[in-house]
C-alpha cells in the first residue's frame, strides 16, 4: 500500500513525538495495514492490545483485560489505584491485582501502547489502563507518560455497556465512548483521519456511505439505496453472495439450512488446540462441518508466498483430499488447495538476553482457515471486504451497525438489501457526531508536528535531569529514621540527614536551573540533536550530575549502617534504601549513557535497558550493617546474629532477649564477668542467669582473637573475677602491619576486622605524629575539615559530618581531628615527626 499524506503524518507523530494519537478513517482506508507496518519498522518499545479476543488475535496482540489484569464490569475512578471513589467506600481495593515482575518491567520500559478497535473500548476501561500505568510508572502523568496510539472508526461498532452498568458509570461519564475517558481529557489526543479509501472505487457509493457515516443521509441517496431492496432475492450457489445479519442466531440458522440443502457427503474437521487458546478467541469453528458445494469464507490471509487468499475472500468447496480442501473462487483460474493454518495466542514477555519486549506464543489453534459463509454477523464482518453481500439490517440495534454492514461491500452493484432499510435504523450517537465534528475542525499540520517533536525531546531531557523521585525517597527515609530515632543505632540517620541539603542544592536545584537553559535550545529552529553547543552542555551536565549522585547518594547504602530491634521499622528502612538504590542506579546508567551526547533513539534504548535492571542493586535485605560509632562492630554483629538465631529458635521477639541498646553497651564496655554484665543498665539478675554465659563467651572469644586482653572491672567483692592477662595493643598490631606495607583493606581482611576499625587504629598514630596525615586525606579536604574545626571549636565528628555532608567521610574526619588535636598540644614535635 502506497503511503499517503495522512499516513505520513501519522507515522511522523508516532515516531518523533510522545503525543497521544487517535488514528481514524472510514472503512477500507488502511488502518490495519498501517498497524502491521508500524510493528515492523518503529524503534519504540510497543505493545498492541484490543478489546476482544478475536480483535486481539487479528491484530497479533493481546486483550486489554489480559495484559492489564483488569476486572470485567464497570471500573470506577480510583478503583485500581487504591483510592476510593465517592459512595464506594471499602469495596474498591479488592480490584487491585498483583502483577508479575516481568509484566511490571514491560510496563515500565514501554514507550508506546497501541489500542486497536478503539471504538469498542469503554471510557472506564481506558481510565482503568491509565490507573495501572500510573501505578507502575509516573503517577503524575496521564497513562504514566506512555504514548497512546488508538486506532479505530467511531462510526463502526460501539462499546457494549449494560443498563445496570451504565447506571453506575453515568455518574462519572457523559457517554461510554473512549473519548470521554478522564485521562484523555487531561492529555487530549491529536486526531488524524485517513481519507483515501482503498476498498471502494465507486464514488457514488462512497458518497452514500459518507452520508450514513455522518448521519446525514439525503433523500436522493436513500432512494438510490432502496433500489437495491430485493426481499425475495435468493442467490445461486456459485454467485458467492454472503448475508450480513445483526444477530448470531439468524446467521447460524441460514448457514445450517443452506448446508442441509446440499445432498453431498458431510466432512467434519476438528481443530488442534495447543496450550492456552480460550474459546472466545477461536477464529473459526473448532468442529468445522463442510460439504462439496458449501459456500465458505477465508478467515485468514494466506501465510505462504503465493498469497492466494485473504481474510474475507468468498469461495465454494469443490472437493476434499487428504489434508487438503479445494476451494474455487470467482476470478481464479484454478481451485485453491487449502491446507491448515495456525493462529497463535501470544503474551508479551522480556527476552532474558537482549531485554527486548518479545511476543511469546502461549497457545495455538490449528484448523482450515474457512468458515461457512452464506451468512455472518455484522459484528464479525468488521474489517472484512466482500464483492457481493446481502444486508439484513432490519433489527439493527446499535450505533454504526448499518454503516459497518454497507461499508463491507466494494460497490453498490454488489449490494442487496434483504429488508427495507429503515432510516430510523441508521443509528448515529450524538456524542460521536460532536466528537467527529471537532476532529474535522482541528486537523494537525506540520507546525504542530514540529512543536510536538521539540516538546518530546524536552520531556525526555526533563526526565533525565529531574531528581524528584530520589528526593521523595530520601525524604521518606529521613522521616522514617527520625520518627524512630530512639530505637535505631548506627550512622545512617545522621548521614541521611547530612545528605538532604547537598542533594537539594547540588542536584535538585541545579537540575531545575539547567532545564530552563535546555528549554531555550528546544525552542530554537535548529534540531537540538544537531546543535553542537547543546550537545556539549549535555555532556558536561551528565558528568556533573553523575559525580554528584556518586558522592551524595551512593555512600548511603555502601558506607552507612543501622541496627534496630523493631522488625517493621527495619523492613521499612531496608525497602526505602533498596528503592533509593535502584532509582539511583537507573538514573546513573542514563546519565552515563548520555555523557557523549543526546540522541532520542539511543536514549530510548538506553532507558529501556536501565529500566529492565541491567545494573542490579547491590543492596541485600540480609546485609550485615556496621556502625561507625562502635569500636568493635564485628563483635556487635556476632551478638546480633546470636540473638537472631535464639529468637528464631524459641519464636520470641529479639528485643525480649536483649535490647539493641544493651548490646551496644556490651560492645563498648567489653564485660568479662557476670558482675560486670550486671553493672550494665538493662541486665537484671534473671537476664544474666539466662543469657549471661552465652554473651560473655562471645565477648571473651572476640577479645582473644583480637588480642584485646581481658580488662578487669569486677565488683569489689571479687565475684567471677578472672585473671588479668597482658596482651599486645590491638592498635599497635594494625600500625605494625601498615608499616610493613599493607593497606587498610588488607589489614582488615588479615585481622578479620572492618576497614573502619583499622582506620581508627591508624588515626591514633597519625595523631601521635608517627604516620603522615596527607597519606590518608587529600590536601583540599584537610583544608576544608580544618577550617570547620577552627570555626567550630567544640564540634565533634557527628556535627562535622552534618556540616560538611557527603564530600568527606567519617574516616577522613577522624584522621584530621586526631592530627589537629595533637598538633594543638605539641605543634613543633608533631610537625617534626610527620615530616
Summarize it.
By secondary structure, the chain is α/β, with parallel strands linked by helices.
Question: Would you kindly provide a written description of the structure presented here, covering whatever features stand out?
Answer:
With 835 residues, the protein is an alpha/beta fold. Helix content is 46%, strand content 12%. The protein contains 32 helices and 22 strands. The strands form 6 sheets. It has a 6-stranded parallel beta sheet with strand order 3-2-4-5-1-6. The chain has a 5-stranded antiparallel beta sheet with strand order 14-13-12-11-17, with no helix packed on it. A 4-stranded parallel beta sheet has the order 18-7-19-20. Strand 12 and strand 13 form a beta hairpin. The chain is elongated.
Q: Key terms for this structure?
A:
835 residues; alpha/beta
Q: Please state the structural category.
A: alpha/beta
Shape: elongated
Helical run tally: 32
Task: Supply Rg.
Answer: 38 Å
Portion in beta strands: 5-15%
Which regions have little confidence, pLDDT < 50, spanning 5+ residues? Answer: 84-94, 614-625, 711-726, 825-835
**What is the tally of beta strands?**
22
What oligomerization state is this entry in? single chain
List the helices and strands and how they pair.
Layout: H1 5-16, E1 21-25, H2 31-41, E2 46-50, H3 53-58, E3 62-63, H4 64-68, H5 101-108, E4 112-115, H6 123-136, E5 147-151, H7 163-169, H8 182-186, E6 190-194, H9 203-213, H10 219-226, E7 242-245, H11 248-261, E8 266-270, E9 272-275, E10 287-291, E11 295-298, E12 314-321, E13 324-328, E14 336-338, E15 341-350, E16 357-367, E17 370-372, E18 375-377, H12 378-381, E19 389-392, H13 401-407, E20 415-417, H14 430-441, H15 446-464, H16 468-483, E21 488-489, H17 492-523, H18 532-552, H19 555-558, E22 563-564, H20 567-593, H21 600-611, H22 633-650, H23 660-669, H24 674-678, H25 685-705, H26 730-739, H27 744-751, H28 755-767, H29 779-791, H30 797-804, H31 810-825, H32 827-834
Helix pairs in contact: 1-15, 15-17, 16-17, 16-20, 17-18, 17-30, 18-20, 20-21, 22-23, 26-28, 27-28, 28-31, 29-31, 30-31, 31-32
